[in-house]
C-alpha cells in the first residue's frame, strides 16, 4: 500500500533522484564510519605503542643504573679503569632514558609525580657512585661500606619506584590494548555492515531503475502503437476532408472508437451529411435560378421590346402630330425602357458570374485591353498603357468583363467629353496587380465601399446608363478569382481602380464547394 502511494506521489525522475541521494548518503555514511573507526583503531594502536615505549625506557633506565653500579663495584674491587669507562657510559645514558620517559608521560600526572621522586633518587644514586669513583684511596673501608649500603638502599628505592611506574604503565597498556581489540573487532564489522547496506541500496536502486526503464519502454511501445493507430485514423479523416474539398459529400468514416478522434469522425460524418443535404438544396435553388434567368431573359424582355416597338411606331406614324411636350414624354419613356432592359441584362450577368464553366486560354492582356477600348472608349479619350502588360492563361470572358466595366465607367462618369485613361500592372507574389486610372471628377472617400454594392451609383438614378450593377459584377468576378479590388481617389482628383488577378487559374470547372 505504502509503495503504491509512493509511486502515485512521485514520478519516475523524482524516484530516481531520491534513490541516488539515498545511495550517495549511505556511501557517505559508510565512508565516515569507516574513517572514524579506522582513525580510532590507529589512535589506540599508537597509544599501545606509546605504553610499550614508556615501559621499554623504564627498563633501559634501570639497566643503565645497574650497569653504572656494576662498573663502580668492579673498579672498587679491581682498580681497573676499564670499569670506569663502563660506569661513565652507563651514567650518561641514564639521564637520557629518564628524559625520554619524562617526555612520554607528560599526559599522565601520576607518573610525573613518580618521576619527580625518581629523579631525586637517581641523582642521589649517581652522586654516591661518583663519590666512590673519586675518593677510593681517601676513604676508609668502613666509609666505603657505609656508602655502598646507602647505594643499595637507594637502588632498592629506585627499583620500587620503577616497578610501580612499570606496573601503572602496564595497567594503562592493558586498558589501551582492550580498546584496541574492541576497535579491531568493531572496525571490520562497521565496514562490512556499511558496505553490505550500500550494496543493498545500490542493487535496489538498480532494480528500481530497471523496473522504471521497462515500464517506460512498455509505455513507449503502447504510445507508439496508439500514435500509429491515431495517425492512420487521422489520415482517413484527411482523406475525407480532401474528398469534401473535391465536392464528394457522401463519403463517410467508419470509426466506432469512443475517444476524441472517434467523436471527431462522428461529427465529420454529420457535417458531410449536412453539407450533402445543403448542396443538394443549393443545386435545386440554382436550377430554379437558371429557370428564373430564362424567364427574365425571354418573358420580361419580350414585352419590353414590344413596348419599345409601339413607341417607335407612334413616333413614326404620328410624329408630325405630336407636340414638343409629347415628344419629351416619349423620350423619357424610351430612356426608362432602355434602363430597365439594361437592368435586366445586368442582373442576368451578375447571376451568371461564377456559375458558368470557365474557358481557359492564353491571352495577351494588352491586346485584350485594346479590343475592349475599341468597343467602349470613344475617340475623344486617350488610352495610355504605362507598363508591359502580361500574357497569362485565364478565363478570357471574365477578365474582359472586368476591363469592360472599368473602362466604360471611366468614360461614363467622366465630367468632360474627353479625358485620359491610364492602365498599369506590376507583379505581387502569385498575382498581378492591375491599375485602371482616369482623370475624371473622382470619388469621395466615404463612397469607396458603397460603389461596389448592388444598385449603388453616384449619378442621378434617372440617367439611363446608370444601373448600379457594373462594379458589383466586377467585384464578384474578382472574388471568384480569389483576388481583391479597391479604389484610390478623392473628390476632384480622378479615380484609380486597383485589382489583383491570379497568375495561375484558380479552377477549370465549377465544383460544388464553390457554389
TrEMBL record:
Localization per Swiss-Prot or TrEMBL: Membrane
Keyword Transferase in record: yes
UniProt GO cellular component terms: membrane
InterPro entries: BphY/WalK/GraS-like, CHASE3, HAMP_dom, HATPase_C_sf, HATPase_dom, His_kinase_dom, HisK_dim/P_dom, HisK_dim/P_sf
All copies of domain Histidine kinase, residue ranges: 295-505
Transmembrane segments: 16-36, 186-207
Protein name in the entry: histidine kinase
Lineage per the UniProt record: Bacteria, Pseudomonadati, Bacteroidota, Cytophagia, Cytophagales
Amino acid at each position: 500500500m505504502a509503495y503504491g502511494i509512493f509511486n502515485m506521489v512521485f514520478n519516475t525522475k523524482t524516484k530516481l533522484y531520491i534513490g541516488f541521494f539515498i545511495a550517495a548518503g549511505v556511501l557517505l555514511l559508510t565512508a565516515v564510519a569507516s574513517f572514524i573507526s579506522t582513525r580510532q583503531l590507529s589512535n589506540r594502536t599508537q597509544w599501545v605503542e606509546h605504553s610499550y615505549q614508556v615501559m621499554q625506557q623504564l627498563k633501559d633506565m634501570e639497566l643503565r643504573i645497574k650497569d653504572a653500579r656494576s662498573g663502580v663495584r668492579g673498579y672498587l674491587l679491581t682498580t681497573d679503569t676499564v670499569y670506569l669507562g663502563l660506569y661513565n657510559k652507563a651514567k650518561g645514558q641514564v639521564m637520557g632514558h629518564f628524559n625520554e620517559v619524562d617526555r612520554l608521560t607528560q599526559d599522565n600526572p601520576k607518573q610525573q609525580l613518580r618521576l619527580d621522586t625518581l629523579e631525586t633518587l637517581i641523582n642521589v644514586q649517581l652522586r654516591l657512585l661518583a663519590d666512590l669513583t673519586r675518593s677510593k684511596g681517601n676513604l676508609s673501608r668502613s666509609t666505603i661500606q657505609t656508602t655502598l649500603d646507602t647505594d643499595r638502599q637507594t637502588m632498592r628505592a629506585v627499583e620500587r619506584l620503577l616497578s610501580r611506574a612499570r606496573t601503572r604503565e602496564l595497567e594503562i597498556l592493558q586498558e589501551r590494548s582492550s580498546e584496541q581489540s574492541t576497535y579491531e573487532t568493531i572496525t571490520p564489522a562497521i565496514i562490512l555492515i556499511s558496505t553490505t547496506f550500500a550494496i543493498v541500496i545500490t542493487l535496489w536502486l538498480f532494480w528500481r531503475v530497471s523496473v522504471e526503464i521497462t515500464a517506460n519502454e512498455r509505455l513507449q511501445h503502447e504510445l507508439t502503437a496508439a500514435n500509429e493507430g491515431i495517425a492512420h485514423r487521422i489520415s482517413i479523416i484527411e482523406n475525407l476532408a480532401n474528398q469534401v474539398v473535391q465536392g464528394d459529400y457522401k463519403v463517410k468514416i467508419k470509426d466506432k472508437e469512443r475517444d476524441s478522434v472517434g467523436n471527431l469522425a462522428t461529427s465529420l460524418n454529420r457535417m458531410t451529411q449536412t453539407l450533402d443535404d445543403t448542396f443538394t438544396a443549393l443545386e435545386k435553388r440554382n436550377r430554379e435560378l437558371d429557370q428564373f434567368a430564362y424567364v427574365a431573359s425571354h418573358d420580361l424582355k419580350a414585352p419590353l421590346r414590344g413596348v419599345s416597338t409601339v413607341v417607335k411606331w407612334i413616333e413614326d406614324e404620328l410624329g408630325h402630330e405630336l407636340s414638343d411636350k409629347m415628344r419629351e414624354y416619349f423620350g423619357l419613356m424610351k430612356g426608362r425602357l432602355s434602363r430597365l432592359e439594361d437592368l435586366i441584362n445586368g442582373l442576368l450577368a451578375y447571376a451568371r458570374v461564377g456559375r458558368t464553366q470557365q474557358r481557359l486560354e492564353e491571352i495577351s492582356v494588352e491586346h485584350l485591353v485594346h479590343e475592349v477600348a475599341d468597343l467602349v472608349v470613344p475617340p475623344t479619350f486617350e488610352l495610355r498603357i504605362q507598363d508591359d502588360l502580361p500574357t497569362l492563361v485565364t478565363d478570357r470572358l471574365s477578365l474582359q468583363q472586368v476591363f469592360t466595366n472599368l473602362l466604360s465607367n471611366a468614360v461614363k462618369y467622366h465630367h468632360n467629353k474627353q479625358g485620359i485613361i491610364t492602365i498599369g500592372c506590376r507583379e505581387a507574389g502569385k498575382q498581378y496587380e492591375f491599375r485602371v486610372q482616369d482623370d475624371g471628377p473622382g470619388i469621395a472617400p466615404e463612397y469607396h465601399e458603397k460603389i461596389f454594392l448592388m444598385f449603388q451609383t453616384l449619378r442621378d438614378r434617372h440617367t439611363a446608363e446608370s444601373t448600379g450593377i457594373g462594379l458589383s459584377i466586377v467585384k464578384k468576378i474578382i472574388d471568384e478569382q480569389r483576388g481583391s479590388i479597391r479604389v484610390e481617389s478623392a473628390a476632384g482628383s480622378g479615380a484609380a481602380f486597383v485589382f489583383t488577378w491570379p497568375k495561375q487559374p484558380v479552377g477549370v470547372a465549377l465544383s460544388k464547394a464553390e457554389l
